[in-house]
Amino acid sequence: MSLEDKDLHSIIDILQNIDDLKVVLVLESPYKDELIHKHPLAGKSGQAVTNYIKGRVPSNSLVASFDLPIGCELQRTGFSKLGIMNSSWLPLDKACYPCDSNARNNTINSFNLIRLNPKSKSRRGMLDQRVDIFLKNNFSKRVRHILQANPTVVFVPCGDLADNYLSWCNIPSTNLIDKIPHPSFNHWSGHFSAGLITQLQKL
């Protein structure tokens, strides 16, 4: 599979030290803020995560002092107990690509279809299915790498696509907290997961 200038759009995971990891937040894919900052959760969603978790971690945790979007704070401080990864390391929203690319690159159209249909386990179009499997295999490889180094890490899929892709990895239920919303559109407000709060207490 080819994607023109894909290196300009790829965003790597934030995993400072896998041996220290306690929790990994799994999101969908990079968006415009992430492309600017070159790391996940750098925009409004990242700020929503910071606002939510800083009051739910131990008062002596470094995270309690965070003010910037969570991805920016993890990069700034090197805090290693919390990680962030995207299901796709490439943007799925076609708005992240130049308009001339959208017209000629069928792969980008497949990305956008996957984003708009996050719960689908299979895709009707041959290219859409190939792209989906390609992304899932890459994601599964990254997840397995983490678990091989640190079998106690807990993954927190945030949103339907992250939940879909983590189910593809078939990881033990003890390594998973599901049914967590994506932090966009004020979804990370109030009390929505006792399991997540329990894990945040480890940070």
How would you describe this protein?
By secondary structure, the protein is mainly alpha-helical. The protein has one domain (about 5-200): Uracil-DNA glycosylase-like domain (Uracil-DNA Glycosylase, subunit E). The chain contains eight helices and three strands, in the order βαααβαααβαα. The protein has a three-stranded parallel β-sheet with strand order 2-1-3. Helix 5 packs across helix 6. The mean pLDDT is about 90.
Give a concise summary.
This protein has helices at residues 32-37, 44-53, 70-77, 99-104, 106-116, 126-149, 160-169, 194-200, and strands spanning 23-27, 82-86, 154-157. The chain is mostly helical.
Question: Helix and strand layout, with pairings?
Answer:
Blueprint: E1 23-27, H1 32-37, H2 44-53, H3 70-77, E2 82-86, H4 99-104, H5 106-116, H6 126-149, E3 154-157, H7 160-169, H8 194-200
Parallel strand pairs: 1-2, 1-3
